[in-house]
Amino acid sequence: MDTEVNPEHPARGASVPKRPAPRLPGREPELGRLTALFPVALGGSAASAVLVGEFGMGKSATLRTAAALAADAGFTVAVATGSRLESHLPGGLVRQLADALEEPGAPPRPPIGELCGPAGESEALDLFFRIVRDATERGPLFLGIDNVHLADAWSMRCLAYLRNRVLDLPVFILLTALTGHPPHREVALLEMAGCTPATITLNGLGDAAAAEILGIAPGELVSACREATGGNPYLLQALRPRLLPGADPHELGSSLIGQVLHTRMQEFPHAPAILHAAAVLGEDAAFDLLAKLAGVDELDALQAIDTMVRLHVLNNSSQPTLTYSFVRNSLLKDMPRTTRAVNHSRAAKLLTETGAPAERVAAHLLEATSIRIPWAVDVLRLSARDAVFSGRPELAARHLRRALEERLTSGRRMAVLLQLAHAEFQFDPPGAAKRVREAVDTVGNRETAAYIATAMLLSLCGGQDARLGISAAGQIAARLDAGGPDAVWPLLCMTYLAEAGSRLGPPPEFRDFEEQWAPLTDPAAQRSRSALLALDAVRNGESAQDAVGHFADALTGDNGDLFEQHYFFTLATAVLSDEPAHVDRLCRVLDVEREPWDVHVPHGALPTLARGIALQASGDLQRASVHFESLLRRFDERGGTTTCPVGVLCAAKLVECWVDLGRFEAATSLLDRMDFVASQGLFTHTYLLYARGRLRVATGYTRFGFEDLLSCGRRLAHHGMRFPGFVPWRAHAARAALALGQTDDAARLAEEDMTASARWGAPRPLGTALTTLGLVREDDEAERALQKSITTLRSSPARLQLATALTELGTLQARHGQSEKAIETLRQAVELSEQCGARPLARRAAEELRSARRALTPAKDNEHGLTRQENRIAVMAAQGLTNREIATALHLTRRTVELHLSGAYRKLGIPGRAELGGALAKSSQRVDGR
């Protein structure tokens, strides 16, 4: 990689003739610093400089250019070059300088080479000094010593001897040396260059100079080439003929460069072995792995790594990788294919033993194509799974094609082919369909095939991916159909669930589906049947008792695959949230050791989410939000918050929690980063609409919130979902309609909710519907509905809904003048809402409580103990206003006005309205008389 392979290198030992200085792209600053030192030597004093750089950085070319510039400036120029192959010959480098400085026609002198050695050392040193001194008498002298680190020891001593004796002579000495080359044991570089030489380091070229060497215009390609080579001129020249259209510079290399570098490292013990190990390991080149792969003792490996780091062949970091990708590729190209494959397989094994990520192990397995590695299949599949998850399906396909090269059973081959179909589906849908058919053709063992197809259904979230899984599962189920219903039922069940959750319309009626496969005898099939019966009960919204019973039957086994299906999990938690024992059982079934099939779902996410939903249902909002927040962070890390059905469900439930907690800004921020368009194809998008609708209503955007809630209802109807407890959208839509003055819409929604909830029969939705009914009804009917709501909700864990019903009843009682009852009811509401952490509800209940207490306090301007409300209504009645007019003015019902007037008559001791004016006047006079 240095000047020894450059045909333009000048003949060693010869004076450089005067000629135009060659242009050196990108080295103008360094040459400027060198020429700035010329006046010192031209003025009669010695000057020196040291030019250092890594292999191929252009030290020799810079020295030649500087020598040509010196010749133009009037120097006599002599250049000598150190050589690795001549470093053992005493005096070789000094002989080159002496021959170049010999004056034509001068009397012959003893050859300086013959004097080298212990016997003639003093005479030889003096002779070399006299040659230099005599040359300076003819004019200023430029001495260039290239690759001084490769000079023989005797020549180094000569240069050190000379340096201190030419201080007052017009001599400019320029030495070039390799960065980090181990110093000679006898002579240091500064002893040859002087104590304070100008030191110039040659770094990589910039884009402009690199573009000139490559012969292309500056741009992204040039930047990539410079990055791949570090701007090293020699490497750029080697890269240039390989830079074909479309080529990636980071993947290019030259076997010639690999040979040169390997040869250069031969002089350092164990360096070639470490060098090859670093090339194979790449970014995985940790110290211990380098030593093991190279088969070198750790102390010896450390010494070799230290040397190559100083030479800038390896990076100076905890991961001593090769400095440039072009160098690594060159070393790999110089390595025989079999040797390279074996080394990559060994590297993969070492990385596996250290617990490295599957992707890093798989990168080496891809290169070990001629080696059979049975354990590699699982690693390649796991890495492919992660690659698809991170948006790199082409890489995943490469890993899976490599896995197919191994000897596989029919079941494993089918699994790999289906996984490959999923990866290829991202960029080649027709090719993916062919892979599915190929996988179906490999079906052998029925149970294995059904298990693999089920796993595929569970691993694909929704949208087009889910359609691929359903298609594959359907083809496999048709292939397995000959084995009878027990052989195919679990797979058909999972296919049905997946299809129910991914289609835009309602799935087929389960009763029709069940008739095709009954009777069943296998326990797993029986549990599957129970699961689908539960789903059918939920969709029809007929009986909570039947749905819970079927869910309980489905939970009797240990296999939780059904409950991992996104659609089924969402509905199961919605139904079971009020059943603590069943929630615990569900969490135990879901809490498995293996990673979830879906890469977006973190380990343990489903039981955590189920517990959070149960806590929210019981009114423990703070603890529920902690569950949701911690889980959402993990979904964010995996990029599944807006694309995975479970991630969307988690985000929606957290928004709902924050709305009840009064954390409106946090809820708004979370919804702002949700992709409502991308999630539209997911069933759990319904939860997202519901959460946004509630937030908008709570923050004053009532019209928009009302539309979101109606959209939520339309989606549920489109899915054929009649279960009223999935999301109580009608209850909140009715409140929004009341706020918007749409009383007819509010009454209709309340009646529909009441009908659906009564049919379902569970306390929570029924109590919620009764509360809504109390808001749209008047007088006694409203109070009866709210009283019944409270009684119903007290039999359920729904504390937040109970607090809401108590608040509404207390407000109604206060409005009807039943202040004593209102105070007790609202006190319970405040206490319960504060326990739930529902700050907006607690504030409202507290405000109503204060109003009720004020209303109960007698007015100060009458002696008969009329309350403020009674006194106000009595005065208005005495002025001639009718009960209807008073009710309208004070926003009360006529029944409330009548109740207040009856209380006033009794306290004033009068029979009716006719005596009201006089009684109020007498009361006022007595108060004034005091």
Structural features:
3% strand, 930 residues, 5-stranded parallel β-sheet, Rossmann fold, Arc Repressor Mutant, subunit A, 63% helix, 48 helices, 5 strands
Describe the structure.
Keywords: ATP-binding, Nucleotide-binding, TPR repeat. Residues 1-11 have a biased composition (Basic and acidic residues). GO terms for molecular function: adenylate cyclase activity; ATP binding; DNA binding. This is LuxR family transcriptional regulator fused with ATPase domain. The chain has 930 residues and is mainly alpha-helical. Among the domains are: 3-201, P-loop containing nucleotide triphosphate hydrolases (Rossmann fold, 3-Layer(aba) Sandwich); 207-252; 868-929, Arc Repressor Mutant, subunit A (Orthogonal Bundle). Helix content is 63%, strand content 3%. It is built from 48 helices and five strands. A five-stranded parallel β-sheet has the order 2-3-4-1-5, with helices on both faces. Helix 7 links the parallel strand 3 (141-146) and strand 4 (171-178). The longest helix has 18 residues, at 463-480. Mean pLDDT is 86; it is low at 1-17.
CATH architectural category of the domain at 3-201 = 3-Layer(aba) Sandwich
**Structural class, from secondary structure content?**
mainly alpha
Spatial extent as radius of gyration: 44 Å
The CATH homologous superfamily of the domain at 3-201 is called P-loop containing nucleotide triphosphate hydrolases
Give the % helix.
Answer: 55-70%
The CATH topology assignment of the domain at 3-201 is Rossmann fold
Could you tell me the strand content as a percent range? under 5%
Overall pLDDT confidence: 86
How do the strands line up in the largest sheet? 2-3-4-1-5
Low-confidence region ranges: 1-17
Shape: elongated
Number of helices: 48
Q: How many individual β-strands?
A: 5
Keywords: ATP-binding, Nucleotide-binding, TPR repeat
Protein name: LuxR family transcriptional regulator fused with ATPase domain
GO molecular function, one term: adenylate cyclase activity
Organism: Amycolatopsis vancoresmycina DSM 44592
